[in-house]
Amino acid sequence: MTVPDEDRTKEALERVEREGREPGLGEVLWHELDLRDPRNAKGSAERFIEKEKRLDILVNNAALLQNTRITDLGNPQLNVDGVQDNMAINYLGPFVFTQTLLPLLESTAADGSDVRIVNVGSDGHKDVSYLDYSSKEAWNHKFRWTMLPTLERYKFSKLAVHLWTNNLAKRLTADKSKVLVLLVHPGAILSDGAIRSLKTLPVPKFWIWLLGTMMYSQEQGAFTTVFAAGAPRDNAEISHGAYIFPPNVAVVQAPGALDEARQKQLFEVTKEILNSAGVSVKGFT
């Protein structure tokens, strides 16, 4: 379990032990990962490689929607490289983490193991109207004049995840890789993070109850991810680059996510930003 906050991780691991992990199902360990800074993301992956000889399944589940508040009035926080938090945490950090771990994933697949990368996207990717990923300035579009700028920036960052995943699937195919890449939409989840945000509103109990009638529980929210990670490869819904949608069916992504020119644009700007930040990633061409 890769999380930057050890105290919150301890609480989560205690819940895993209390609510679900049965004897014989292995142990859940904390591995420190701060996705906000790509240097930290790379260092975390390198520490994992030092400790482990194999990696069968990598799930990239980062989903920063906002920093505790429902809206920030179009004034996002930036990381040390001047990239706004949603793009840094939801896309750039996972990109670096995954790319650094790719040699370990490849070596695990080489021994015949079923190795997978599962990226958690969002069906909100189809609602993004601002589609410019041509520069860091474009990545930092504030969506200031929208009703919920934090939500719009979240969807923008998740479209980036879709573009990256589709491009990664193509690159691995070209390299004749045995690593399977899948993308999932978990559905709208009443997560701990969502509840913390709702608690900032007037009459929070009402909003938590109301959204609880419309959103998935956290257990249900894990269904598509677990399915993508563990369903046999001969399952009709499982294929390289598939987008898994509740209730565990492969569906077509929005045209904006399938645009190969935009995928390449995001890829090239990602390289530029990492190069300017002094973050070199092995095999990143």
Automatic annotation (TrEMBL):
Keyword presence, Nucleotide-binding: no
Lineage, highest ranks first: Eukaryota, Fungi, Dikarya, Basidiomycota, Agaricomycotina
Keywords: Oxidoreductase
The name this protein goes by in its record: NAD(P)-binding protein
Stretches for region Disordered: 1-22
Listed GO MF terms: oxidoreductase activity
Family stated for the protein in its record: Belongs to the short-chain dehydrogenases/reductases (SDR) family.
InterPro entries with a match to the protein in the record: NAD(P)-bd_dom_sf (IPR036291), SDR_fam (IPR002347)
Entry-linked PANTHER family: PHOSPHATIDYLINOSITOL-GLYCAN BIOSYNTHESIS CLASS F PROTEIN, PHOSPHATIDYLINOSITOL-GLYCAN BIOSYNTHESIS CLASS F PROTEIN-RELATED
